[in-house]
Design brief:
With 232 residues, this protein is α/β, with parallel strands linked by helices. Helix content is 34%, strand content 26%.
């Protein structure tokens, strides 16, 4: 199937319900990539079927994609091959705080909501557990040059990953785009306050409408229904 995102045409397969409705999906994500990716490096943590990695590959010198769900990874890999994209580095591992192994909690393989965080509510119950390889993401990022944007969308796993990146963030202040999942945090209030302090101390905070917001607005958003932000 051929799709078009802005002026970029792609061949895709699998997840056809998603691809058939791509014109209605997260326009702000493409806008944020357009804003920060221009011949530099894009890091896609939680790459799923490759939608953002592939889009960014036409604008970036290189893309580094991380996806631990084996079915999602296979779809990602196939889509990249269909488009003969050569500048995406694929990592079939979970970005985490260690080089090792961890449990991946899954509702259904390939469905985009696998996580390092266990979910117990009925709608999103992660009843499948698979052990995966993990990578210390800060060590990996330290080897990269000219990072234009780090995107993180890992269904609550940001509660594990971002604290492990604290020293890297404070030192390098890479531009970041994060979809938070506070309803799945194991310590919601503590984690929200931690993120608010970390990001407000090191960045300006922007919502997906590209408006700069305050630390207080950010906290209110995470406690409400606004969960995606970028930091620059």
């Amino acid at each position: 199937m051929k799709i078009k995102i802005n002026n970029i045409e792609l061949q895709v397969e699998n997840d056809m319900t998603f691809w058939n409705n791509i014109s209605d999906w997260e326009k702000y994500s493409f806008e944020i990539i357009d804003k920060f990716i221009n011949g530099n490096t894009f890091v896609d943590i939680g790459a799923w079927n490759g939608v953002l990695s592939m889009y960014a590959s036409f604008k970036a010198k290189e893309v580094h994609s991380f996806e631990p769900d084996n079915i999602a990874f296979k779809n990602l890999e196939n889509n990249i091959k269909l488009n003969s994209i050569k500048n995406i580095v694929l990592n079939n591992v979970g970005a985490s705080n260690i080089n090792g192994v961890a449990n991946l909690y899954v509702r259904s393989f390939g469905d985009s909501i696998s996580s390092l965080i266990e979910r117990k509510e009925e709608k999103y119950h992660s009843h499948i557990i698979e052990q995966i390889k993990t990578i210390n993401i800060s060590e990996y990022l330290s080897e990269l040059n000219n990072i234009g944007l780090i995107k993180i969308d890992i269904e609550g796993g940001e509660e594990i990953v971002i604290p492990s990146m604290q020293d890297y963030i404070v030192k390098n202040k890479p531009k970041m785009y994060v979809s938070f999942h506070p309803n799945w945090f194991t310590e919601k209030e503590k984690s929200i306050n931690y993120f608010a302090e970390l990001f407000s101390s090191n960045y300006k905070i922007f919502n997906i409408s590209h408006n700069e917001i305050t630390k207080h607005d950010f906290i209110n958003g995470l406690n409400g229904k606004e969960h995606s932000y970028y930091f620059a």
